Amino acid sequence: MAVPLVVGIDGSEASLEAVDWAAGEAVRHDVPLHLLHAAPADHDASDLVAAASERARKSAPAVRLSSEVLSEDAASALLSDGRNALALVLGSRGLGGLAGLLLGSVSLAVAAHADCPVVVVRGGEEPRHGRLGCVVVGVEDGEGSGTAVEFAFREAQLRRCPLLAVHAWSVPVGNPGPPGLSGYALRALDRPPAQVLADALRGPEQRYPDVTVRSEVVEGAARQALLNAASGADLLVVGARRRHGHVGLQLGLVNHAVLHHAPCPIVVVPQI
Asked: What domains, with CATH codes, occur in the chain?
């Protein structure tokens, strides 16, 4: 049996937008779509599930659909289903959050603890409907983004669109270096930023030769570089390291920023 794409529903418009997006992705990946509604005291969710099911079939008539209603905490239920899911798909806002929050508490909790990729569906109609024709992936130094890069290549191949790989760098604070040495040269004393990016892409480029890849090395804050790149993308992909000795992922400041502000759907991919 194919591993499903799981989407959390709560009746909010944001969760219905997530259903629209997930239905199209399920057909693209040729996997079932599973609708999950969970709330501790919700005794009758039949209308909510029916509306979400109708929305999914309208978005993608060929989608293979199932649904589930659980009387438990939404984040716990989603994390449990995520152990056997291609990905978890969530809206950017829920019904229960404070109006001032840019990202619902359930979505943030799930993104920080899931065993599978987590997609938060953000942005306007163009990126949500895949009309911009680009996937962006953030590449960091080290091993934290390896699985994310592989995921991004696979998505670009399925979507038949180019991939933009972005690596941002900055001179370490408190390390002025030798007199007259430029910021790039100082950073290159450790490892040239362009080399970081080339090394991360080398293997996936060989495995996905049909994907057109563009590399971008940016001096400055990673969060702003990714947000700028994502303004022309249908999907932003970032990686997350697992915490040593702790449950969950190291989302960090960059991932928090893009989860709250990305202008397109964003997926957090746990490092394997």
From this structure: 5-121 (3.40.50.620), 127-270 (3.40.50.12370)
